Amino acid sequence: MSGLAPRAPGDSVRPWRLSDVAVRPLNFTIRSRMLIRAIAAFVALPGIVAFALPIAIETSAGRPVQHVAIAAAVLGLGTLLLLWCVREFYVAGRGTLAPWAPPKHLVTTGPYRRSRNPMYVGVLTILIGWSILWDSRTLLIYALVVAGAVYVRVLLAEEPWAARNFGAEWEAYRARVPRWFI
């Protein structure tokens, strides 16, 4: 038994049409859109700087991997720190790490209690991990260049932006938490 009511004689059978199904457009909530932006920002920014470029540089050089255990520990530590920071931006800051969708609230939780820039520390830790894995002076130089660029960006763009957007809250945070970890 199919569970359908029997047809009465003379009832016409109409073919099934797509319009018979209630089709609702995908209705992303604000939170799910923010999550998509956070993931896209992660892939676009630290994903390229900390993962894609170093891997591309060293795999194209054909170097064998070395010091796997130490490199894995350093890479793991940096990756965990980076992901924790991304989560804090999303949950506490209600934004992403990307300049096009920054946090709406000053993030002072998680690793941001100990450093104003732990995300960059995570990225640089990852770069050092890759350098150890391939015993690569090239990646060490790359990490130093990234560190310099980050330092300049923090001084000239990010800290002034935070001061403009978060005012006294930023000043109090800045007074009690170091820029890096020391």
Care to describe what's here?
This protein has 182 residues and is mainly alpha-helical. Helix content is 61%, strand content 0%. It is built from 5 helices and no strands. The radius of gyration is 25 Å and the shape is flat. The model has no long low-confidence stretch (mean pLDDT 86).
Shape: flat
Order of helices and strands: HHHHH
- The number of helical runs is 5
Distance between the termini: 74 Å
Write down the overall mean pLDDT: 86
The total of beta strands comes to: 0
Please summarize the sheet with the most strands. Answer: none
Give the uncertain stretches in residue-range form. Answer: none
The helix content is 55-70%
Rg result: 25 Å
Q: Tell me the β content.
A: under 5%
Structural category is mainly alpha
The domain count comes to 1
Attribute tags:
5 helices
Annotate the secondary structure layout.
Blueprint: H1 30-44, H2 46-61, H3 68-91, H4 118-133, H5 137-176
What is the compact description of this entry?
The chain is mainly alpha-helical.
